[in-house]
Specification:
The protein is α/β, with parallel strands linked by helices. 40% of the residues lie in helices and 16% in strands. Bound molecules: ligand L34. The site of ligand L34 has 20 residues, from α2, β4, α6 and α10.
Length: 297
């Protein structure tokens, strides 16, 4: 079987069109403009690229949008004060602190300082807990994007055997938690594999839907994939540079070989990445509505 390649870029563009209509409606009926701040500490090239993408999209959608870049040696106390400033800014509905943070900063302390109502990443413990209970306020952007790609591609999640490779707080744990819920676009049987899993292949071979967020190229090879499986590649690995100095990106899946076995596969770049950015915009619109007491659909 040769897989259908689902373009995150195209689906994200479609969602942005839907969001434009929502933003126009918020403006016309409620005089509200969604406000987003992205906080970047330091100048890690990948983080700079992702945050730039977020700002560009926010501007395109007509948000009130602030890029707040801080030096790599900012103190934890100063970063906490900065978060507090945006917690108290009524024009800001969403606060995102780009991860990873420098080693001298306690990441959890910073994430816990964000007002849960402005936590458009969904990383605050209150939002993580709500997600687990099945009463989510904000879905973390990457898992949200993955689920949206699956549903818009017509993939049946209910009853499916889902295998997640990777157990990060950013992707592995939240996507597992989302897809196991007794809810629509969920109700799957979920297995989470990680670096200490005894026989990963034995698990991945059973997957109807295989979600790979392992953080290394070729973590999943063709011999690990069932014929006809749906394969979502979350990895974004910078494996080198072009002669023009542009980063060469590669996913966690051996794309060329796996696409001959899968029924659906996502590419890197142009797969989950653009969806992550767009779901952040969706969460920011949601946060703006929540702040104004506008009922959500
Ligand atoms: N707080 N930190 C916080 N929230 C997040 O949701 C993230 N993540 C991850 C890293 N740290 C975070 C992102 O934003 C990963 N991530 C992310 C965002 C965008 C893209 C990839 C990862 C993306 O746009 N990828 C493009 C290629 C971009 C490039 O050329 O660098 C793609 O097509 O895959």
């Amino acid at each position: 079987m040769t897989a259908r390649i689902i373009s995150g870029k195209e689906i994200a563009a479609q969602i942005r069109e839907e969001l434009k209509a929502e933003v126009a409606d918020l403006s016309a009926k409620h005089a509200i403009r969604p406000g987003l701040v992205t906080i970047l500490v330091g100048d890690n090239p990948a983080s700079v690229s992702y945050v730039t993408g977020k700002q560009k999209t926010a501007h395109e959608l007509g948000f009130h949008s602030i890029q707040d870049t801080q030096p790599a040696d900012i103190s934890e106390e100063d970063l906490l004060r900065l978060v507090e400033k945006y917690n108290n800014d009524p024009a800001i509905h969403g606060i995102l602190v780009q991860l990873p943070l420098p080693k001298h900063i306690n990441e959890n302390r910073v994430l816990y300082a964000i007002n849960p109502d402005k936590d458009v990443d969904g990383f605050h413990p209150v939002n993580v807990g709500r997600l687990m209970i099945g009463d989510a306020r904000f879905y973390p952007c990457t898992p949200y994007g993955i689920r949206e790609m699956l549903t818009r591609a017509g993939v049946q999640i209910e009853g499916a055997e889902v295998v997640v490779v990777g157990r990060s707080n950013l992707v592995g744990k939240p996507i597992a938690m989302m897809l196991v819920q007794k809810q629509k676009s969920a109700n799957a049987t979920v297995t989470v594999c990680h670096t200490r899993t005894k026989d990963i292949r034995a698990h991945t071979l059973r997957a109807d839907i295989l979600i790979v967020a392992a953080g290394a190229p070729d973590s999943v090879t063709a011999d690990m994939v069932k014929e006809g499986a749906v394969v979502i590649d979350v990895g974004v690995n910078r494996v080198g540079f072009t002669s023009e100095g542009k980063a060469i990106l590669k996913g966690d899946v051996d794309f060329d070989a796996v696409k001959e076995k899968a029924s659906i596969i996502t590419p890197v770049p142009g797969g989950v990445g653009p969806m992550t950015i767009t779901m952040l915009m969706k969460n920011t619109v949601r946060a703006a509505k929540l702040a104004a007491g506008i009922p959500l659909e």
